[in-house]
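Notes taken during the Thursday session

The instructor put the following on the board and asked us to keep it in front of us for the whole hour. The protein is Mechanosensitive ion channel MscS domain-containing protein. We were told not to look anything up and to reason only from what is written here. First, the residues (572 in total):
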Amino acid sequence: MKVKGLWPAWLVVVVMVTFSSFSAAQTQGEESEDTQWFTVDVLNAGLGEVPEEVDRVTPRESVRSFVALTEQEEYAAAAHLLNLSDLSSDEQVERGSQLAMQLAEVFKRGEWLNVSNLPGRQDAAIEDTTGQNPLAGMPRRDIEITSLQADGEAYDIRLGRYQVEGEDPVWLIMPESVSAIPVLYEEYGPSMLEKYIPSRFKSSFGVLMVWEWIAIPVFLLFIGLVGWGVYAFVGLTAKLLPSGAQSIFAARIKVPMALIVISLITQMMLDYVVSFSAVATTTFRVLLIALLAWGAGTIALRLVDTIMLRLTRRLVGEIDDTKPRDQRRLLTSLYALRRIIILITVIAVSVYVLGQIQLFETLGLSILASASVLAVLVGIAGQAMLGNILSSFQLSFAKPIRIGDLVMFEGQWCYVEGIFYTFIRLRVWDERRLIVPVTYFVSKPFENLSVKSTKMYRSLELTLHLSADISLLREKFLAFAEEEESVIEHHKLLCSVTGQNGTAQIITCYLMTSDPLAGWAAEMSVREKMLGFIRDNHPEWWPRDVMVISHQDIALGARQGKQSPGGGGASH
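Then, after some discussion, the predicted structure tokens were revealed:
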């Protein structure tokens, strides 16, 4: 009896656990459904019945319906796509159409709105076939259409999903976004100029309105004339400034200064004079940001170049290997610093432009998805350029050559004038310039004649008769060499017989010069003086051939002379 009495208690426990689990599952299901929308008691009671042309089932259809209705100027019907719950019933009737009209103008001018990018599902769930998005398949009850700036503040235009008990859920502009419409309209609404444009020119023609097709070319012509005026003014200023770094800097910033002024004036006109549709405004905005960033970056680089030019003229002067190594090393470091500044400037400008046009938000997933393809394309297309850039940094830091060094490259004497990102500029001894790709230069053997010292031994050879007096020639060589300014270390002057044959001797003279190019000139001068001394004083020292004539050769010559027409032989 005791055991039998326990069965009802266990049965009660099982039933209670089962019932509680079922209740919890049912409650969780109800909560899951509630998270798919906002439950409200009433929606826009003051607007009356919803017209049949209003479609609010999905986010895409809601916005598409709003745009279509406002283009037909049916603002009263478009007001049904706004959640006006923050307004009373009377205010909904009075202000609903006005708010719809204002939001339509904001959409036209604020930012290019691509309706096709909005979700087409009723639950606005993210569809991701790649399986990389962890939120894929989860329903959403509010989404962002766009985000706009006004008075330095960001305002989001969002759609929310609402359900009145017993009715299907619908997508409407959320009350928080509706309250921001007047502020956004003040920022993006029609300009003063548009109030005087006839209505017939405000109709759409393609992606723009009719009046915009006329106004945009005039607008571009006007800002182009402004840019030309700035360019001419800066050029005139450069001519009026005294010659020097200031005039050089002013002359080199004409184009970037013109672009900066164009960008600022265009932005000012778009803010206060005229406003175009979102397509044109977005295009202008991207171009203006790029022009402003490029102009500012170019002016910064021109300033660095001007400072480098001034330092070069003050510290180094003419670039050659006669200058101290410290000065040439400084100039090489300045060129390396210039390339680093260029690299930093390009990266900063690129990040600024991408950040301003919000490419990271709109194209981030696409960029990440195609990163491998872009890497391959950039690697193939820019292989030579990247190799030159890396090689230029290698030369700048390792310093096998410095600015001003004298190098023997492919059989030519050249001074290193500049080491740039992709090429090296060499000044040949005859004032020609060689532009050599960096990778080509480092892949070829070259002789740096200035790596330790610019001093160089030069030698000249004279081939003279065996009777030439070497002692006298040595004295003359020493005298002539000491007269040359570029000949140094006179104790190392040397003149000796270095070769001999049966008829002549080879005399070689050695001299030390301050630098290779001056040594070449000194060698030519000393040779000329030595040859002049021999020609004027000892012409018998010139080498001459010795011919030995035998008796048979003499007899043969005599017989040939008799037989010749003029030698007294037989008559013709």
